Amino acid sequence: MMLRLATRAASARNVMGAARLASVVVDDLKAKILAKHGEDAPKIARLKKEFGNEKLSDATVEKAYGGMRDIIGLVYEPSLLDAQEGIRFRGLSIPECQEQLPKAANGTEPLPEGMFWLLLTGSVPTAEQAAALNAELQARADPAAIEVARKAIEALPATAHPMTQFSVGVLALQHASKFASAYAAGKASKNNYWELALEDSLDCIARTPQVAAMIYRRLTTGKTDLAAPLRKDLDWAANFTNQLGFQDEKFWDCMRLYLSIHVDHEGGNVSAHTTTLVGSALSDPYLSFSAGLNGLAGPLHGLANQEVLTYIFAMRDKCKEAGVNMKDRKELAAALEKFTWELLNSKRVVPGYGHAVLRKTDPRYTCQREFATRNFPDDELFFVVDTIYSIMPDILTKHGKTKNPFPNVDAHSGVLLQHYGLTQQAYYTVLFGVSRQLGVLSGLVWDRLQGRPIERPKSVTSDWLFKKFKI
pTM here? Predict the structure, then answer.
């Protein structure tokens, strides 16, 4: 086993040696990935041999028509979602990640590049490893490759949705794919697919923040010029936020949190599964991630936080029009409860509450609430959201139409961005995408390392089911 792993590493190094000089931190990263794989591979082999025919879940008629909810049909390594505990990244809860992952010298929140290391290797990096990875990403932010993406974005109508521009920008970066180039040259094989995928993933993560910042600048100024050059003294999230045009270091820390907690939510959600599915055809990471972004752009996935803000603004305005004292929590709560029942009785839903899997308050909501409590407890919009949180679970429980009456991540994320002045709601899903690549590309690397085949689940027609059940 270890001989095969060493052969894989040597083969891939030969393929990529001409493309880029060796990097100490990347070699370290690869060694840790291989070490984790060396631990897991014999166990996976045993699982397949001894338990290969064991059933993991039932695929019922209801689930076939209902979005395949709760059907276990995928193995996805970076994260696991528990209905009661929430998301765990390589076994660590969000509070544990906040405590254990490296932080910026002047920050309190985890560094997203540290989270990426964790998702790839299964181990928490040292501060030195996180810093080295950040320096590596900066070195990979190739201006020529990014310029191709800029031209592609500028060719789109200025009115194109930011997510359309981001997906196109990622596709434009694909011209530099090492995976696609090696495959076309006959230099890619099952032994080095994973390292080629890792190379593309590192390049993508290095370049997409500037592409995303260009889109924001185009949205707000009409031009794709970045607000600031890349700074070697800043981490990945701080550099991105600075290039958007925000110099408030509190916001940099907020974005470290935001970009860390949105990275992943196990493999069955639309953006993760789409990336995995497209990647299973040996499409390179750029093609796969762009496809995932198109799923993330849907109103039922990444666009949900915009709907939440629209709802919050509407509730706030109704309270003000009714003459409610917005600083009196008791009076505000009474008014919000009245307006919420009006909303529910009109057969509408409360955005930001409920989740397909979770059955408690989303830990991603909780950590954002705690950040707001520490940094801007008197913010009016936060006060409204927090008051809604104090009454909504009881209201939705009495209403009886939801399995989970608690808030999800979307119920709070927009409030943080609004407070710091990033008010362009159409752009919020781009931020989600910048973060989500850290999770889905980690998953893609592991899919190639574990030799996953192309996905091909079986589908049937309604007529087939009518005949089967004699209807």
Answer: 0.93
